[in-house]
Structures are given as structure tokens and as C-alpha cells.
Specification:
The structure holds 2 protein chains of 2 kinds. Chain A folds into 2 domains: 53-63 and 193-602, no CATH class; 612-651. Helices cover 14% and strands 30% of the residues of chain A. Chain A has helices spanning 2-26, 39-49, 102-106, 180-189, 272-280, 465-473, 480-484, 636-650; strands spanning 120-122, 145-147, 218-222, 227-230, 238-242, 248-253, 260-269, 289-291, 298-308, 315-318, 325-327, 332-346, 352-365, 373-385, 409-414, 421-425, 431-435, 441-448, 455-463, 496-499, 512-514, 516-518, 525-527, 532-549, 556-572, 583-595. In chain A, strands 3, 4, 7, 8, 9, 10, 11, 12, 13 and 14 form a 10-stranded mixed beta sheet that branches. In chain A, a hairpin with a 4-residue loop joins β23 (525-527) and β24. Chain B contains 5 helices and 15 strands. In chain B, β3 (58-70) and β4 form a beta hairpin. In chain B, α1 runs antiparallel to α4. The model of chain B has no long low-confidence stretch (mean pLDDT 90). Chains A and B meet through β5, β6 and β7 of A and β3 and α2 of B.
């Protein structure tokens, strides 16, 4: 019967194998692959097919007892022959190894340590009869070694004269075999000191309403809206950031209502032609990206699109985002993503309404020597409440300036009818000329003054001899540093204001103070014999006078006065033998914050309490009525006046 | 006859209250007290404001680690950590490792004396730089009780590609200010190395960047520093890179603390007493001259006269 079943089973298996083989051969054209098979797939299959067995020692059954007996450890002698590390064999130089016969021991060069070094004491009496001492934390009372004593006078003052301890020492008993609960007890006690700690999974909110700091679910929409692939770290909206190196890693998680300042990281490609679109493209941050939970995904709308010149950094406006593509002719990856500035709008209920991304693109090429293409990308996120985008603007403190925050600045503006004035506040603070990517000066290359930080910026102006002469003999509308700031601080628009307090309101011009500009009078002169241009405005010197106001423990700092001074120098063309080779001249700007010399903090007392008790405000209700919002009590002077006037009239 | 005992007789000086002699005696003793205080205080160190004691800290490796191996350039780094959330987020750069940690208590006092950590990274490629952060539970038990979670940072870089790095050093306590005497300080008993925050879920770039971790850590008052001048970089090519790190726990770590009231008074009293006795001795000579030679008027009564009066 068994044999029949076996034959039937074999027939069925062979038939099934033949059917499968035929079915496979009939499909001559394989179906289109949805994705490429990773190499690990074949790796896994190789694991299942490769035979492997762990090596083991042979068993000598002649030494195996019919009834095994437990080999008890004698606690008082356990560990006294630590060099015996071979079972049924002699260990070299282990004199206490019972498996070493005399012939083997005759070959020993020395006796290896038989255990850890025994604790020792310095005996102060050389000829003492003591042989045992009681050492703290020691189990080996009987094996304390005598060592040579110090023969000094002081060392002989304390002696071990006699020891009569009845104990052999302190020993750990061999406990009974442990059970699972013992392991659980030990594991719980040492849970903080183990590899492989687990992290509890925190379930996210199932709704589309967020609280401050809540991470935002995100996904990619690939192939239309049909396929959604989780994005970022743990399917959460995460921006690239430098983590392990300057390389971009998608770990900058974005929390609800948590602004992310501009964070720059780098992307690399060794094969630019293949990686141009995948590595430097913008799709994953714009078109593919969906933010929010699946029931309420929010797409990313493209806002302002600009192109940054890869050499100068100059920005030009683009109507729409151009596709990222590799140009074989120039070997350039064109329109790689350089900057993304997200603006996420939310409503009062805690839901995301819209996501807008301002983009900057640029071109990148591979390094000629290494073949490595590098592109720096910058990401930022700002949050605005729906409908308040134009009103919200950051403060640099409240009310005093905080270190590291921009100095608020702007220019005065008038309403169309000229009846009102306000400050047109710069979004990034007070500008200062700075260098572009090539280290040269340019109209769009500005940095911003940061409160409390004495700073220096510099940039280069390359000029040949002829250009220097022409520049020196020309009559520019304003000095060069002024031109680099688009005319700011210039003679014609000397209306730059700086906020006195960091919480200044741009609609109130009295909260702002005009920047005093000095040194606009000099003119350049060209000395052809020395190839020197005298009196070149080569920089700006910003000075801010800072005052302290308020509690000595928490002084608030205001800008009491601000001044910008033009700095002049002589530009000399150094190498007259090469007049057509450009020489770089330096524009250097400095910022200095000066503490105002002011009186020391003084005590301000509380106003004395009134001698007379306050009267309720409705004491003369029909005659004096206070407004609903005022908590005002009737004053005694008013009471006297109220009583005296009628009395005088009556008299 | 042999003298078996001696008994001193005194000449006693009496004066009325608020007399010159009385005022002199009172003022001189008050002046001695004031002079003593001025002297000991002006000679510095009267009030003990800072002290130290030594103890071996109880250090245990919490098995939290962050390892970064860097290649020739940015983007060619691999890492390994004990934090599953981070490993999952950066899975494409996660290294395969074999890590071993051993704590050795050589003197059997219950505290580890040496902590050995070794990590073998497979498939590392050419390694030019190693950054390793290890976290420990650090306890001081003595006059001050303090418990914190601290870090050891190991960094080594070489222009030569390496196959092994051996470092051997001590985990030393660093204090910016001394500890307060009367508290059990557990302010920093929170993880200094915790990518993802306390829950392990809120992962962001800042909690992973070495510079951010170290900046936050060094803002603490008490920190530990792995001090080693004996790093050995073994150059070599290969797919494996191994780090051997031996962290020695100093048996006598010096801990600075602000002494308590009784300790301050004890040291102050010793100094005060030493100077006061000296000045008192000098004063006794001044008093001797003053009263012995009748500079101030007193009525003198001798014990000898008194005993004569009571002679039986």
C-alpha cells in the first residue's frame, strides 16, 4: 500500500514539474518588469540552495558513561588552575595541569600563571610569623603573599602581629540551575546595558489635524496619482540635510508650525550623464511630493522660479521650471535644483491648506580631474497662517534685540497721496556687500548684518590697468560699495532706517531711526605715473550704538544710533608689465556694535501704596460712569470735589 | 622627701566693673578675637569654598554607540549605530558590524576597571577617518552622589587607508564648576546620545550630527572625556575595518565640590584656633606686664594670704 502511494505521489510531482516547465516555455516574451530585480534576490536564493553545516568535535563513545553524573565544582579550589584550558590534554607550561605527565613537564620552560595574582600585603616586620590576613573583597585568605617590607621608621609603626581568622575566605556557592524567570529578572535589571534595545512604536494621529511639532506624513506620487510611495524618513516629510557629512540625507524632519531655516547640503555624482535628472532634479521636492495623510494629500505648487548663474550666482527670473537634463555638448547638467523654499499655509483648525515652493535652478558640471559633479542644495520651510501671509514678519527679539538675529532695516515709503509714511522693511534685515560664489563683488551678492556680531565681509573687483584708469577717471553716480547695495545709503536715497527695538512696527516710523551716512564727499583721482587711483571708496563701516534698558538680570538692548561710513583707500595696479592681466582689488566692509556708555543700573522703587483706601467706582454711579473696559476706582480728590462743589453752591 | 605633686598659687587682681583695668582686659580679649579673624581672613583660605575628594566612578557601558567611517571624500562614508530608527532612516549607509563590549572588574570591587569595545566593520572599503561615540552610565559615590549619562568621543584620521585602529585611554571626569555638597545630582542622567529624542521616534538631522551632539553635550557642567594619546592606526587595504578601544576607569578620580557648612566651619575653626592661641599667648605677656607692674590700678589678693587666713 505504501509503495503504491509513493508511486502515485511521484507521478503527480513529475507531471506538475513538466506542466510548469511547459508553461514557462510557452511564454516566450517575458512580461514587462515593474522594477529591476535586485542582486540581493539571487543572494537570497543562493542561501536556500547552499548546503552548510557547523563543524563539531567527534564523540568518543567509549568514554561516555551510561548514567552521567553531575560534575560538582568545589568552590574553595575552583579557579586555582586557570592555565588548564584543554580537556583531556596537557597545556604547555601549565604546571598544575593534572593531564601533564612528568615527561611533558620536563619540557616546560617555566610555569604559567595558574590564576589571577593573589592579593599581597607589605609586612612591616620582616620576621613576622603571620601567614594569613583578611583582605576586603578577597576570597583568598590563605594565600596572601609576603612581600619585602619597607624598612623605614614610619612603615614599621603598623604591624600585622597575629591572625586567627577561622574562615577560609568568602566564596560564591554554585547555585542551582536557573529557570526562565531568573533570566527575566536579570534582563530587566540590566535592560539599560544591552545591545538591541527596542524602540516602542508611537502611533500617529489618524486625522488631518496637527499640533505644533507633529511630523507630517508624506508620499511621492509616481505615474500620475495612481502610485503613492512613502517618502522621507519613515514616510514623513523630511528635507535633505548634512548628517554624516556634507552629503544630503533626508533626515531634516519638518514639524507642524516649525520653521526650518535654510540648510545647505551637497549632492554628488560620478556619472553625471546618467545621474543628472535623478540626482539633481526637482521632481521629488515639487511635482511628486504629497504632504499630509492619504485622505487629504496636499500637492506642492511651484511659486517663484529663478535661475542662478553658476559662476556669479546672479539670479534671473524664470517663468516656469525647466526640466533638468544633461547637455552632451557642454557636458553640463542643466537646471539642477539649487534651492527650495517651502511656504506652507495652515488654517486655524490645524490643517495644511497649501504648500508653495520657490525654486532656484542652476547648472553644474563635473570636475575635469576627478569627474565628480557637486551641487549644493538649500532647503527651508516657513509657515504662514492662511490669509495672513502679508502681515506676518519675524521679529529679532521682544522687545530688545537678541544676538544672532538680523538687524531690522528698511527704507521710508509714502502713501500714494503722500499723507502717510511707513517703513518698507527688508525681509532679511540690513544688507552688507559680500562675495559671490566666485569671490567677486556683485550687485546681488549681499549678506546681512547680524545683531551683536562684529563682522567683516570682503569681495574682489578684478580690473586691468586700463579698466582701473577708466574706473578712476569716470564719474560714477555713487561710490562702488553703494552701487553694490543697489544705491542703499546713496546720496539720492539717504532714507535708510534701522529699527530701534527688535519688535518695531514697520507701520510706525517713530519706532525706527535713520542711519547716518558719512563720507560721501571724496572724488577719485588717477595718478598715471604711479598707476594709482586715489580715494577709492573701498568699503563700508557700519557702527551701531547699543543701549541697555530694563532689568539688570534681563537687559533689553536697543539700537540707539547707527552710522555707515564710507572707507577710502588707494588702488595701485601692481604689475605694469602685464597691464592686460586683471588685478583683484578688495572691497572690505566691517560691522561694529558698541555698547553705550550709560549710568549703572539703579534701583527703582515701587510707588508707595495709597494712604487712603480706594473707593468703589460706582459710588456716584449716576453722575460718574467709567467705561466697561476700565478698572478704575473713584479717587478721593474727585470725591472731595464732588462733595465740596454742591456744598459751596448750597451755602 | 620627694615632691609628689605641685599646686600653683596665684596673685589675683580685682577691679571694679568698668574700671580701666576691667575695660583693658575686656578690650584686649575682644581685640584679640578681632585681630585673629582679620589675620586668618586676610591670609586667604579661611572659608573653604572648594574641596576635592577622590573616588573610583562606577561606569557602565550603556551599549549606545554611533560609529562613522569616512572614505576619501564626502558621500563615501558608512555608519553604524545602536538606534534602530536612525539605522532605518539611513539604511543605505548602514554598515554590517560585529561589536563586542567587555567590562572587566580586575579588583572585584563591583566597579568596572576596564571597558573593552571592539567593532569589526565588514565591507567598509578604504577608511581614512573614524568617529566613534560611546555612551556610559557614570556614577560617583562618595561625599557627593552624582549620576549621569556621559560620552566618550574617539576620532582619528589618516591620509593612509586603514584596516585597524587601536586606542587606549582613560575616561576622565571634567567639571566646569564644582558640585554642590548636599544633593544627589541626577541633572544629566539623561541620554546625551539619543538620535530621535527620548522616544527614539523624533529623528532629525541635528540629533545625528556629531557637531550638534558634542555641542549640546559640552554645554553640560559635568562631562567625561576620553583621554588617549596612544592611538595606533594600522594602514591597510581590505574590506574590513576593526576598531579596538580600551577605556580605563581611573581608580582615583578627583571630584571637586563645594563643602557643606560643618566642613567649612571645621576648617575655619582650626585656622582660627591656631592663630588665636598664639595671639592669646602674646596677650598674656602684655597682661603680665600691665598688672604685674601696676600700670593699671587693681586690688591684689594672693592665694598665699588666703591660705594663711584659713590655716588650721
Amino acid at each position: 500500500m505504501d509503495r503504491v502511494l509513493f508511486i502515485l505521489l511521484s507521478i503527480i510531482l513529475v507531471a506538475a514539474a513538466q506542466f510548469a516547465k511547459a508553461a514557462q516555455s510557452s511564454n516566450s516574451t517575458p512580461p514587462p518588469a515593474l522594477f529591476s530585480v535586485p542582486s540581493s534576490y539571487s543572494f537570497l536564493s543562493s542561501i536556500s540552495t547552499t548546503s552548510f553545516s557547523l563543524s563539531s568535535f567527534p564523540i568518543d563513545w567509549t568514554t561516555v558513561a551510561q548514567v552521567p553524573s553531575l560534575n560538582a565544582i568545589e568552590v574553595t579550589v575552583a579557579g586555582t588552575c586557570g592555565c588548564d584550558l584543554t580537556l583531556n590534554g596537557c597545556d604547555v607550561n601549565c604546571c598544575c595541569d593534572a593531564e601533564c605527565d612528568q615527561s611533558a613537564k620536563a619540557l616546560f620552560s617555566e610555569c604559567a600563571p595558574e590564576g589571577p595574582p593573589a592579593p599581597s600585603l607589605d609586612y612591616c616586620v620582616p620576621k613576622s610569623q603571620v601567614a594569613k590576613v583578611n583582605l576586603h573583597q578577597s576570597s583568598s585568605l590563605a594565600v596572601v603573599e609576603k612581600t619585602a617590607p619597607d624598612d623605614g621608621f614610619l612603615s614599621k609603626q603598623l604591624c600585622i602581629a597575629h591572625e586567627n581568622n577561622a574562615q577560609l575566605g568568602q566564596f560564591f556557592s554554585d547555585p542551582a540551575p536557573a529557570v526562565e524567570t531568573d533570566l527575566a529578572t536579570a534582563a530587566s535589571q540590566y535592560s539599560d546595558f544591552t545591545f538591541g534595545k527596542t524602540v516602542p512604536v508611537v502611533a500617529g494621529s489618524a486625522t488631518n489635524v496637527y499640533r505644533v511639532g507633529d511630523l507630517l506624513p508624506a508620499a511621492y506620487s509616481l505615474g500620475g496619482n495612481s502610485v503613492l510611495v512613502a517618502a522621507g524618513a519613515g514616510a514623513q516629510f523630511a528635507l535633505p540635510a548634512p548628517v554624516l557629512s556634507a552629503a544630503c540625507e533626508g533626515l531634516q524632519l519638518v514639524g507642524f508650525l516649525t520653521d526650518v531655516p535654510e540648510t545647505a547640503c551637497q549632492r554628488y555624482s560620478q556619472t553625471l550623464a546618467q545621474d543628472c535628472e535623478a540626482t539633481f532634479g526637482a521632481d521629488r521636492f515639487t511635482d511628486w511630493l504629497r504632504i499630509g495623510r492619504p485622505s487629504a494629500y496636499v500637492s506642492v505648487a511651484t511659486g517663484i522660479v529663478r535661475f542662478a548663474d553658476p559662476d556669479t550666482g546672479a539670479l534671473t527670473s524664470l517663468g516656469t521650471a525647466s526640466p533638468t537634463a544633461y547637455d552632451m555638448a557642454s557636458g553640463t547638467c542643466q537646471n539642477g535644483l539649487s534651492k527650495v523654499a517651502y511656504t506652507i499655509a495652515y488654517d486655524g483648525s490645524g490643517s495644511i491648506v497649501s504648500v508653495n515652493a520657490d525654486l532656484v535652478f542652476t547648472n553644474t558640471t563635473a570636475d575635469a580631474s576627478t569627474g565628480l559633479a557637486t551641487l549644493q542644495q538649500t532647503f527651508s520651510v516657513s509657515w504662514v497662517r492662511q490669509g495672513t501671509q502679508t502681515k506676518v514678519r519675524p521679529k529679532s527679539g521682544n522687545p530688545g534685540y537678541l544676538d544672532g538675529f538680523p538687524v531690522l532695516a528698511g527704507q521710508i515709503a509714502k502713501s500714494s497721496d503722500g499723507s502717510k509714511q511707513a517703513i518698507s522693511q527688508y525681509t532679511d534685515g540690513l544688507p552688507i556687500p559680500a562675495a559671490g560664489p566666485d569671490g567677486l563683488c556683485g550687485p546681488s551678492h549681499v549678506s546681512h548684518v547680524v545683531f551683536g556680531a562684529d563682522s567683516l565681509t570682503s569681495c574682489g573687483v578684478p580690473l586691468t590697468q586700463a579698466q582701473l584708469a577708466a574706473f578712476c577717471q569716470s564719474s560714477p553716480p555713487s561710490p562702488l560699495p553703494i552701487q553694490l547695495l543697489g544705491g542703499l545709503f546713496g546720496a539720492l536715497s539717504n532714507d535708510t532706517y534701522v529699527a530701534t527695538w527688535a519688535s518695531a512696527d514697520a507701520s510706525n516710523v517713530l519706532d525706527w531711526r535713520e542711519v547716518v551716512v558719512e563720507g560721501m564727499t571724496s572724488a577719485m583721482t588717477w595718478d598715471a605715473s604711479l598707476l594709482t587711483c586715489h580715494g577709492v571708496a573701498s568699503g563700508l563701516k557700519y557702527e551701531f550704538l547699543v543701549s541697555k534698558v530694563g532689568s539688570r538680570d534681563n537687559p533689553q538692548r536697543e539700537i540707539s544710533f547707527s552710522r555707515v561710513t564710507l572707507v577710502y583707500s588707494d588702488w595701485t595696479f601692481q604689475d605694469a608689465t602685464q597691464p592686460n592681466v586683471a588685478q583683484t582689488f578688495v572691497i572690505q566692509n566691517t560691522v561694529k556694535f558698541l555698547p553705550r556708555v550709560q549710568p549703572e543700573a539703579h534701583a527703582i522703587g515701587r510707588p508707595p501704596p495709597p494712604l487712603l483706601p480706594s473707593l468703589p467706582d460706582d459710588l456716584f454711579y449716576p453722575f460718574f460712569i467709567t467705561s466697561a473696559g476700565m478698572k478704575e476706582y473713584m479717587s478721593w480728590s474727585r470725591l472731595l470735589l464732588t462733595l465740596l462743589i454742591p456744598s459751596a453752591l448750597l451755602l | 622627701m620627694v615632691q609628689v605633686y605641685g599646686e600653683a598659687l596665684q596673685r589675683r587682681h580685682y577691679a571694679s566693673r568698668w574700671s580701666a583695668a576691667f575695660c583693658f582686659r575686656l578690650a584686649s580679649h575682644v581685640a584679640i578675637l578681632v585681630l585673629t579673624f582679620i589675620f586668618v581672613h586676610s591670609s586667604q583660605g579661611f572659608w573653604l569654598k572648594e574641596s576635592t575628594f577622590t573616588a573610583q566612578p562606577a561606569v557602565r557601558f550603556t551599549h549606545d554607540a554611533l560609529l562613522l567611517l569616512e572614505g576619501k571624500g564626502p558621500g563615501q562614508e558608512i555608519f553604524w549605530s545602536t538606534f534602530p530608527t536612525l539605522n532605518s532612516a539611513l539604511a543605505n549607509k548602514l554598515a554590517a558590524v560585529e561589536v563586542r563590549a567587555t567590562e572587566t572588574d580586575s579588583d572585584h570591587d563591583g566597579n568596572a576597571d576596564v571597558i573593552d569595545v571592539s567593532a569589526r566593520v565588514s565591507g567598509a572599503g578604504p577608511v581614512h577617518s573614524v568617529k566613534l561615540l560611546l555612551q556610559f552610565r557614570y556614577q560617583i559615590q562618595g561625599r557627593i552622589r552624582m549620576q549621569m549619562q556621559s560620552l566618550a568621543y574617539i576620532h582619528h584620521a589618516s591620509p593612509l587607508p586603514g584596516s585597524e585602529l587601536h586606542v587606549d585611554g582613560e575616561l576622565r571626569l571634567r567639571q566646569r564648576r564644582p558640585l554642590s555638597f548636599d544633593n544627589n545630582r541626577v541633572l544629566y542622567d539623561v541620554p546625551a546620545l539619543a538620535p530621535g529624542g527620548p522616544s527614539g521616534q523624533s529623528l532629525d538631522s541635528r540629533s545625528v550630527q556629531m557637531q550638534s551632539i558634542l555641542r549640546d553635550y559640552l554645554d553640560r557642567n559635568e562631562t567625561t572625556e576620553f583621554v588617549s594619546s596612544y592611538a595606533v592606526w594600522q594602514a591597510g587595504y581590505g574590506t574590513d575595518f576593526t576598531i579596538f578601544e580600551r577605556i580605563r576607569i581611573p581608580p582615583f578620580e578627583s571630584v571637586a565640590y563645594i563643602p557643606g557648612l560643618m566642613e567649612v566651619l571645621k576648617y575655619a575653626w582650626i585656622q582660627f584656633l591656631a592663630v588665636w592661641i598664639l595671639l592669646l599667648y602674646l596677650l598674656s605677656w602684655v597682661e603680665y606686664v600691665t598688672f604685674r607692674y601696676r600700670v593699671l590700678e587693681t586690688r591684689v589678693v594672693s592665694d598665699l594670704q588666703t591660705q594663711k587666713q584659713h590655716r588650721f
